[in-house]
């Protein structure tokens, strides 16, 4: 038997580990700043690129794709080489993967605070960056598959199955959710509208959690937990059932994010059924991980690596039990739009992803630098302070979520809402936000302790960048099944067939749900009174997207008595047919805005954006004063309207040709309305006089950003008229 020598590439693993720690600290710092913004809403007063709406997507992207993403690559590149007994297929592709991913992260860190966003959750980056993501991801997959094809180990271990499924599914999700029509270098519109856009987004959004935050980490669990425990995985058969059932079922579950919305009932119900089914494979994986530790539980007392991994797997089990429970309609009716969801998400992110990453780092670094960990005591302290941080974060958010739901739905005996003012529900949970900020601070402190511990460990060790290894060459065997070989045994040595079957498994659910929703018109009943946005309203909507308003405000009134009483008539599918993208939201830090149009005066909206506390005492909304001062560049509106026409929005040639005139007329009317407020007149005229005396350019109010935003807000929910019998007028 020929024994071949080769070298593992540790350099690429080290690079991804360094990036994991760097971006982990950055992402958590941004998250902590956002947590304190709930307590001190004007802490970044007047700085547009540090406003809550712009930083929130930066936090989620930094934690998911920068921190967790780099951890995935580090673990995959380390384990793949050792499981397949070969160096990665291409060092060039490895480095392309690393540097390309870091450039994408930097691009996100620049563009999101500047307001360049699609507003689609976990997919906020604009089209040039989406193209870069696709290119780098293909490079990663090419390298992974090339490595599999040149392997010296015939059998593909379960971790490799999960890596392959992750590559294929994330590629499919990213491409189809990111189909958008570019308008300019950093502006695009989703090709889907309204209900269809919501379905595609949450097919992507839920499965980004499934196939970016779960399946690759399950692969890492199947490799690193047995390694750290020095025990074989508990059950090979259970791993087979776990893998195939998980990837098939998960892809169907996205609609449970849209229960009681305008999504067709059949799609909602499909999402519920498959979400409940998810408990079985998810807990099968958790059990397989925990039972691997049989016989080594005594080590857990002293070994920080195993501690982190045990809590990570337990956190996975908790989150994957809670997720299906939240998909039950009666539970979802309470939890959705509340802080309960924030707690749920962070149990998964902090415990499952965070702790498994920490455990992996503590195990990997001493191995790669041929030394021992600098301080086991600090590692154990990190574990306990991190665990306390998770508890202090999650439990108050559960309490806040229950409190919100109960207060939102409570009625007086006379049928009126007990808490008619939404702000009453906000002020009640401020103590919970304090506890969350403290919990997040503790978790970040633990992260910083780990960074220190790792740096000192690296300094006292010696890096082995090209680690020598040897293994027998792979001999040829029959491509057909041999006697006594099960189908799955055969499949585990046929990576191409394995990948094809995994691809088929993940495509079925998406096709069954998405294709009928897009092609069968009866899913979206037409409402003839719903018209396209005027040019000024379209520009105002883009400002609404730029400022991240959808992160705190929903535009989806569910058919509950409490919501109809509080916000107005429940949402209809036909209202959103011209919404590219949809803006239904997923969290109510503030009230729903679907029926806000005409509810308040133009002056109220101006004052509210300039100083929210002046119109809403106790509000935790930050000020958006730059909207009042900044001139609005509306020169690109014709291009935006032409793009909308390509997407099916019925603007006529005359509408596009007269867009500038239409905007001027509508803006002048809003300016005229603003003049009805004597306080506005005094301030406005004083500003004009100051500009004239100091030789500065003065921007007429009609040309400022706030006027466009007011135009959009005043349009919301005004397209339909509801008769006394509850029917929508002009409904075809």
TrEMBL record:
Heme b 2; high-spin binds at residue 344. It is a multi-pass membrane protein. Binds 1 copper ion per subunit, denoted as copper B. One of its GO terms (molecular function) is cytochrome-c oxidase activity. Heme b 1; low-spin binds at residues 59, 346. Its cofactor is Cu(2+); heme; heme b. Pathway: Energy metabolism; oxidative phosphorylation. It comes from the Bacteria. One of its GO terms (cellular component) is plasma membrane. Cu cation binds at residues 206, 256-257. Belongs to the heme-copper respiratory oxidase family. PANTHER family: CYTOCHROME C OXIDASE SUBUNIT 1, CYTOCHROME C OXIDASE SUBUNIT 1 HOMOLOG, BACTEROID. This is cytochrome-c oxidase. It comes from Flagellimonas pacifica. The lineage of its organism: Bacteria, Pseudomonadati, Bacteroidota, Flavobacteriia, Flavobacteriales.
């Amino acid at each position: 038997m020929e024994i071949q020598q080769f070298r593992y590439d540790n350099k690429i693993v080290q690079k991804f580990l360094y990036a994991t720690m760097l971006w982990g600290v950055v992402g958590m710092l941004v998250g902590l700043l956002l947590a304190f913004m709930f307590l001190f809403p004007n802490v970044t007063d007047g700085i547009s690129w540090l406003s809550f709406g712009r930083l929130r997507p930066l936090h989620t992207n930094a934690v998911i794709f920068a921190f967790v993403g780099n951890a995935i690559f580090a673990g995959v590149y380390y384990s793949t080489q050792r499981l397949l007994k070969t160096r990665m297929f291409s060092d060039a592709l490895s480095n392309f993967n690393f540097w390309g991913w870091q450039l994408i992260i930097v691009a996100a860190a620049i563009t999101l605070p500047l307001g360049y966003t699609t507003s689609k959750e976990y997919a906020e980056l604009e089209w040039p960056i989406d193209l870069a993501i696709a290119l780098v991801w293909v490079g990663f997959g090419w390298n992974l598959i090339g490595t599999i094809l040149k392997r010296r180990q015939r059998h593909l271990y379960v971790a490799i199955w999960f890596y392959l499924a992750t590559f294929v599914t994330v590629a499919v999700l990213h491409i189809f959710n990111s189909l958008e029509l570019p308008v300019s270098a950093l502006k695009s519109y989703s090709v889907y509208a309204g209900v269809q856009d919501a379905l595609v987004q949450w097919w992507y959004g839920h499965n980004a959690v499934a196939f970016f935050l779960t399946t690759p980490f399950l692969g890492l669990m199947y490799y690193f937990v047995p390694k750290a425990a020095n025990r074989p995985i508990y059950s090979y058969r259970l791993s087979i059932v776990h893998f195939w059932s998980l990837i098939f079922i998960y892809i169907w579950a996205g609609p449970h994010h849209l229960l009681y919305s305008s999504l067709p009932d059949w799609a909602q119900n499909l999402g519920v059924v498959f979400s409940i089914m998810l408990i079985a494979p998810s807990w099968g994986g958790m059990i397989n991980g925990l039972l691997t530790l049989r016989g080594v539980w005594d080590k857990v007392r002293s070994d920080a690596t195993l501690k982190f991994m045990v809590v990570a797997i337990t956190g996975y089990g908790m989150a994957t039990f809670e997720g299906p429970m939240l998909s039950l309609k009666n539970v979802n009716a309470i939890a959705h739009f509340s802080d309960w969801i924030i707690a749920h998400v962070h149990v998964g992110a902090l415990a499952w992803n965070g702790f498994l990453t920490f455990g992996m780092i503590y195990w990997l670094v001493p191995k790669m630098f041929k030394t021992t960990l600098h301080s086991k005591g600090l590692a154990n302290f990190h574990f306990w302070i991190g665990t306390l941080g998770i508890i202090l974060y999650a439990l108050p958010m559960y309490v806040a979520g229950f409190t919100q739901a109960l207060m939102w739905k409570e009625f007086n005996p006379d049928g009126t809402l007990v808490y008619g003012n939404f702000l009453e529900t906000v002020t009640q949970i401020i103590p919970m936000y304090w506890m969350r900020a403290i919990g997040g601070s503790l978790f970040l402190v633990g992260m910083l302790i780990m960074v220190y511990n790792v740096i000192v460990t690296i300094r006292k060790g010696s890096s082995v960048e090209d680690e020598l290894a040897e293994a027998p060459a792979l001999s040829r065997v029959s491509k057909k099944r041999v006697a006594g070989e099960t189908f799955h045994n055969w499949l585990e040595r046929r990576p191409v067939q394995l990948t094809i079957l995994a691809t088929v498994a993940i495509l079925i659910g998406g096709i069954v749900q998405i294709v009928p929703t897009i092609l069968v018109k009866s899913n979206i009943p037409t409402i003839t009174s719903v018209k396209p946005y005027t040019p000024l309203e379209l520009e105002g909507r883009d400002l609404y997207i730029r400022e991240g308003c959808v992160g705190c405000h929903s535009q989806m009134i569910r058919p509950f008595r409490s919501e109809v009483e509080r916000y107005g008539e429940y949402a209809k599918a036909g209202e959103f047919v011209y919404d590219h993208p949809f803006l239904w939201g997923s969290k109510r830090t503030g009230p729903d805005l679907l029926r806000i149009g005409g509810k308040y005066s133009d002056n109220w909206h101006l004052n509210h954006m300039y100083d929210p506390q002046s119109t809403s005492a106790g509000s935790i909304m930050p000020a958006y004063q730059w909207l009042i001062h900044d001139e609005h560049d509306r020169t690109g509106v014709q291009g935006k309207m032409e793009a909308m026409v390509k997407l099916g929005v019925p603007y006529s040639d005359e509408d596009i040709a007269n867009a500038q005139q239409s905007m001027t007329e509508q803006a002048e009317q809003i300016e005229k309305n603003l003049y009805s407020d004597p306080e506005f007149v005094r301030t406005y005229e004083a500003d004009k006089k100051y500009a004239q005396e100091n030789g500065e350019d003065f921007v007429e109010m009609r040309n400022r950003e706030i006027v466009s935003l007011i135009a959009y807000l005043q349009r919301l929910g005004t397209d339909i008229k509801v008769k006394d019998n509850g029917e929508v007028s002009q409904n075809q």
